[in-house]
Every structure is written in C-alpha cells, then in structure tokens.
Amino acid sequence: MRKGIHPEYRPVVFRDRAAGHAFLTRSTMTGERTVEWEDGHTYPVVDVEISDVSHPFHTGTARVLDTAGRVERFERRFGKRGGA
C-alpha cells in the first residue's frame, strides 16, 4: 500500500439510534462526538439509523408483499399480454 493516501483505520463505536444499541468495531469513519466505552477508553461515536438489532429482516418483523395479487390486479386492469 502507498503511504499517506489511506484514511486511518481505528476503533469506532457505532450507536443504533432506533434500538439504543451500540457496538465497537474498527472503521475509517470519524465522528465529531466521543463516548466512553465499557473498557474505560474513549472512542469516536457514529450514530446510525438502523443496524442488525433494529432491521426488520433480522428482527423477524419483515412484511411479505403480496406480489401475486399485484400482478393479477395489473392484468385485470391492462389485460394479459399475448404469447409469441
């Protein structure tokens, strides 16, 4: 790797605002605010809107869309397309 062109890779706390969950990982992102972590060290914090704790796919609250009903409604409205 060339020296001086890559951002610094360091520990950062990501905090999920929707679920109130935070986790420590390494990233090149920077935050203007800092937070004291469980280990007593201070790290920059980045607030995110959604993470695996609050995402509907991971929590099991995802809704299944009725795609078959939409296709049938479209075909009723505009007619079926002829084959060949």
From TrEMBL:
GO terms for cellular component: ribonucleoprotein complex; ribosome. Coiled coil: none annotated. The keyword Ribosomal protein applies. GO terms for biological process: translation. It comes from the Bacteria. Keywords: Ribonucleoprotein, Ribosomal protein. The keyword Nucleotide-binding does not apply. SUPFAM superfamilies: L28p-like (SSF143800). Pfam families: Ribosomal_L31. GO terms for molecular function: structural constituent of ribosome. Part of the 50S ribosomal subunit. Belongs to the bacterial ribosomal protein bL31 family. Type B subfamily. This is Large ribosomal subunit protein bL31B. The lineage of its organism: Bacteria, Bacillati, Actinomycetota, Actinomycetes, Kitasatosporales.
